[in-house]
Design goal:
Largest sheet: 5 strands, parallel
Number of strands: 9
Oligomer: single chain
Strand order of the largest sheet: 2-1-3-6-7
Length: 349
């Protein structure tokens, strides 16, 4: 008699109770309830971070009540304590030092800011156009202040001529031989405040830097020589204070021109430091302060040139001293300034 040999790869039929479909549904339901009770806060937070749409609406509809229950039950904390051995690393969420914790100290800016006194970034630090948003326009440009050192001339005359037909009152207030890094003739911290009090300008065009490079007092009164990071930091702090004054709490716009590369190599070093400091100084106020790059316009690549193409013709745009713009250069610079003014003021359209 032959016997049929059992195939070892065929498993025996399982014994015991067979689960029905409704048993599986019950298991899923219990799991969902436990998830809601234990992770309700996470569901709520996820819903807040989703982009607007149907998915966000559904998740927030569930996450709201789930988060409310989780806040009132200790299950989430109990689960975290019970499973903490799975993640032995030190807890790095919440508490002192976290992003959500208050700084607890005064807001200090500039070179004197110490640890724990970091100033928060505000919306004023962002140019809306850089974020793809429509910039906030101002209705009327009534008073335009054009100021600075000798570099502001003849730019001030050109702007006054070009904007006269728009009803703009252009105040020309250049102070020859002055600088941010020198206070023997004019202290620009005081002068900028005086200009704003007297003129209340809607916009300020600043072009200055022909007389920079002087030592400035740093920490402890020690003089800091030009033109390293320490000097640039002091210069940027002074320029930032002026920018804050000129923007009038957001009511005005500031157009700060960088320096075209000068011909003299020693002055080039100063100009690089000044331009770098201007960019840093404007960072907290980019919503109102526009840095107009005259270096790229007149001396691309940082290479000095006395002439450039203007209207299809090679035109001399610098004065013989290798520093200042001549009348033709002032017209080119004025075109850049007016283009930015038009983007900010409805009355110039």
């Amino acid at each position: 008699m032959s016997t049929t040999q059992r195939d070892p790869f065929i498993l025996d039929r399982p014994t015991g109770r067979r689960l029905r479909s409704r048993d599986a549904i019950a298991v899923v339901f219990v799991a969902v309830v436990l998830l809601v009770l234990m992770e309700g806060a996470s569901i709520r937070n996820t819903g807040r971070k989703l982009d607007p749409g149907l998915q966000r609406t559904v998740v927030r509809a569930v996450g709201g009540p789930a988060g409310w229950l989780a806040d009132r039950l200790p299950l989430a904390d109990a689960v975290n304590s019970a499973t903490s051995w799975l993640s032995p690393d030190q807890k790095l969420t919440g508490g002192p030092g976290s992003f959500e914790a208050p700084s607890g100290g005064p807001v200090v800016t500039g070179a004197g800011a110490g640890a724990g006194a970091l100033a928060p970034v505000t919306p004023d630090a962002f140019d809306p156009a850089a974020l793809g948003e429509k910039p906030k326009r101002l209705a009327k440009l009534g008073t335009l202040l054009v100021t600075g050192d000798s570099l502001a001339q003849p730019l001030d005359v050109q702007l006054a001529r070009d904007l006269a037909s728009k009803g703009v009152n252009t105040v020309r207030d250049a102070h020859l031989g002055t600088g941010i890094s020198k206070t023997d003739i004019v202290d620009w911290g005081q002068l900028s405040s005086l200009q704003v009090r007297q003129r209340k300008p809607d916009a300020v065009v600043m072009f200055m830097g022909a007389n920079e490079g002087f030592p400035m007092p740093g920490a402890g009164g020690r003089l800091v020589q030009c033109c390293g990071p320490a000097w640039a930091a002091i210069y940027a702090t002074r320029a930032r204070r002026m920018m804050d004054t000129y923007r009038r709490g957001g009511a005005a716009r500031v157009y700060w021109l960088t320096l075209p590369t000068p011909r003299d190599s020693a002055r080039q070093k100063i100009a690089r430091s000044v331009n770098a400091a201007i960019l840093v100084a404007a960072q907290p106020f980019r919503s109102q302060v526009r840095v107009l790059d005259m270096s790229a316009l007149f001396t691309p690549g940082g290479r000095y040139r006395a002439a450039m193409a203007v209207g299809g013709r090679n035109t001399i745009v610098r004065r013989p001293d290798g520093i200042h713009l001549n009348d033709a250069g002032a017209r080119v610079a004025a075109g850049t300034v007016i283009a930015r003014l038009r983007s900010d003021f409805d009355s110039l359209q």
